[in-house]
Amino acid sequence: xxxxxxxxxxxxxxxxxxxxxxxxxxxxxxxxxxxxxxxxxxxxxxxxxxxxxxxxxxxxxxxxxxxxxxxxxxxxxxxxxxxxxxxxxxxxxxxxxxxxxxxxxxxxxxxxxxxxxxxxxxxxxxxxxxxxxxxxxxxxxxxxxxxxxxxxxxxxxxxxxxxxxxxxxxxxxxxxxxxxxxxxxxxxxxxxxxxxxxxxxxxxxxxxxxxxxxxxxxxxxxxxxxx
Length: 227
What we know:
Layout: H1 7-25, E1 32-44, E2 53-65, E3 68-80, E4 89-93, E5 96-100, E6 105-118, E7 124-138, H2 141-144, E8 149-165, E9 169-181, E10 213-225
Antiparallel strand pairs: 1-2, 1-10, 2-3, 3-6, 4-5, 6-7, 7-8, 8-9, 9-10
């Protein structure tokens, strides 16, 4: 039986930790927020059957200690499935059989809450963040001949460095890993079972084994605004 991860439980635990830590410290909260917009390359794991693409996102944070913040983070990307991961679609015209590669465009959205830890340097500031939330993948309605989507919980981890530019702005470079759980690769095949090739399978390359947990690595640059 496949183990299902409760995304709400992870998200609740993350928010609870963010609220408990400042109260336990017994010190005055530093009231300061930041808004970060970023863009970069999204590189899914091979088992996901997705090609790499561009990604854009936004992170809104509230600083509760000079070294700690809590944040909401959301990002999105448009991806294309890899043809070699699914049996070709077979269409018969009289005595001739045509095989068509199977691909579709999808829109993937990540969202969640996270805790960030950073040094208290004035200009160059390394940081790390950890969070939980969810993802939703919107399937191509034309390819599937219906409106469909795939959702599940996710965990995230990031390492980066920010550079302060003036009092209100900053630049940052970040590497982030999205861990997508309860992932069902078969949902990405829009071809009905009776239209899939079952005759020439030996001529098709074997894709990597499907996994219910896949990674999506993001390398991004961004701009941070301090209100």
